[in-house]
# Entry
Amino acid sequence: MYARAWLASAGWNANSYVVFDYQSKTNFKFAGLDVSSNKLVMGHRNATGWIVDKQAAFPTSLKSETWYNLLLSVNGLTATLTVNGTTSFSFIYAA
# Structure
């Protein structure tokens, strides 16, 4: 999957997420890029809002208006996001 974070404007942040384990509009998991903080992010959404479960700095500078190749693999409770075939980031979700 290719993802592109659009240029942020007027107080909005630039990010790009893959949504998975979708149960409803307020119950799913996500993984992706947060350009404004230069981080890889994994988390979940519930009735209280967006919860970031894990984040890590991206080794180089993330840029808006740039295409990134994202591969999300889920094996049981472990989700692994690979960016551009080189940078991997994993999180183990609770059962």
